User: Fold these one by one.
Assistant:
Number 1:
Amino acid sequence: GRGIAVFTSGGDSQGMNAAVRAVVRFGIYLGAKVYFIKEGYQGMVDGGENIVEATWSSVSGNLHKGGTIIGSARCKDFRVREGRLKAARNLINRGITNLVVIGGDGSLTGANLFRHEWSSLVDELAEKGVVTAEAKSKYSNLYIVGMVGSIDNDFCGTDMTIGTDSALHRIIESIDAIAATAYSHQRTFIMEVMGRHCGFLALAASLASEADYVFIPEWLPEADWPSRMCKKLSSEREAGQRINIIIVSEGAVDRDGNTITSEMVKDVVVKNLHQDARITVLGHVQRGGGPSAFDRVLACRMGAEAVLALMEAEAETEPCVVSLDGNQVIRLPLMECVKRTQAVSKAMSEQNWDVAVQLRGRSFAR
Ligand code: ATP
């Protein structure tokens, strides 16, 4: 059968284990040999014990765990040709010509580059006598499928990335917990959530938690946001509400392009309203804990689709990324999605909101 390797790369997210499990189980079910590559690209470059054949039972009991059991890493070696040559050798030695990469846009970019360089890497290995003429013809193509693991939901072409829903659950749990203590003391809480170029977590959390105010990178608050915010907060208090919750996305900026920090928001509240205000930065808690039911199911569906895509791949098939369109799991051209994602980040950092929102639009998938 075909040799398929699966690995996780870049930042971790909940549901990655479920995705790996689905790839392993569905691959084996369809008669493929499936391998884990541990520690992302670093394991691919280093080879040895980092690349191991998976068995049906080797993925048992991990579905509910957060993070990624097979490890993830940032890898400098893979950014240079020499490192990728080593990686190619390690894959060919094990008969692997199919990769499932679970990561962010950087990891997918690396995979795409690897695929386009692949035949020249194989040629070089043949010249050096590392691979035989027979192996050379057998391993002339590398097939790539990507899945996006990210809590930020910041990838173009998919409605949800693996991990987003779990992170949202974690945020909501935290806000609920904080709201109880805030209620007791009539406090105002400023909750800072992740999302450098994407306010999805902050926005969805604010809808799900009755927050009074939210700052996200996609929305530039009016120049007089401090007084508007104070008016809103005090009107809630006057109406009998004992607490205020403000959610700040880490990527929120004002009209001058300056970051709106939790401290700034707190100072405004304390100075103008004399409320007892506290900041909670959720940080890596958002990435922790087990995956939600949604993420488990999403990862299972995406993992199975990734294997199918590899099974159906032909010589000229370009790398694809498995994504969610509405409730449908589909395949989209990997590099087009990556390029759009990077263009959105660029537009966001240049405060080109219209361009960013237009590029991110889900209509792209249709
Ligand atoms: P996150 O969204 O969590 O940052 P990511 O996949 O974007 O995830 P990166 O650190 O950008 O994370 O990339 C992970 C790894 O992918 C890098 O450490 C590197 O090994 C590889 N990689 C990224 N970009 C390239 C590239 N242009 N060429 C080769 N390899 C790359």
Number 2:
Amino acid sequence: MVSQDFLKELPKCEHHLHLEGTLEPDLLFPLARRNGITLPTEFPQTVGELETRYGQFKDLQDFLDYYYVGTSVLIKEQDFHDLAWAYFQKVHAQGLVHAEVFYDPQSHTTRGIPIEVVTRGFETACQRAEQELGITSKLIMCLLRHMDPQEGLQTIEDASRLLSSGSVHGIGLDSAERPFPPELFVECYERARSINPELQFTAHAGEEGPAKYVSNSLDLLQVSRIDHGVNSVHDEELLQRLAQEKIMLTVCPLSNVKLQVVSRVSQIPLQKLLDANVPFSLNSDDPAYFGGYILDNYYKVAEEFPHWNHEVWSTICRNSIEGSWCDAKRKNELL
Ligand code: HPA
Ligand code: ZN
């Protein structure tokens, strides 16, 4: 097995990280108090109780029910900034050099917080991460698939200026995967593309949903990568396509175990993806909820795939840089 020092030193990129998913229990309660938010009565009342509950998610929906309560304590621009800045500081110490990070504007705008406030808080943290830590980053705005696609469309309209100005670099799709297939969001993606043809596109697919959600995200939403995508391995033709078109899967090992997509990391079909030449990156998804940040995910995979040598890890790292949405100059710096 490669050493932990080797994994730590690798120039790591993260492509699947929900900024709201970095809200640690020990920040959630103070923020709720600071902002006068009353948490639901059935919600755990202490950091310890909450951490215990986080260790017992049944599935994606069970996690999302906690995740959306968590987002409700974020109110002010400073809250969003502090949250993202805490993430960047943590992963800086883990050898992260580039991050493409998700946020869910609808989970804030539905509570009356303007999209500009949320975005500015996150964007200023991204700028600070580059200046003070040398970490480059991109913001990806996700639409919530459990909400009416018409509301997604309105969110795209409301974000027009942010999408045109470069504040937001890409569009994604998250929240409960089933029964909300990608085809529901075709109009949203088309509208975003018409606002700014330079935008990048991705979507969560094939986490709990079938391989068909992956191919339909490619065909109908015209995404250039897929978040999770592990169920793609059930469709050989799709695997060949992912390899041929160099569609990167942003795999989240600890998340897959915590949400019971698999029972242990060794069951994630990473070897099959490698053998089929399907590029993937390793990511933390919602690290405050799933028990580990980027390097913890690398460590766990190395432990469960002990036969992977330096060459395999260098391939993963190179694919992860090449699959990033930064420009060629930055990629060359990282390679
Ligand atoms: N899947 C879908 N939606 C999400 C996730 C996830 O892993 N994390 C935050 N929103
Ligand atoms: Zn995710």
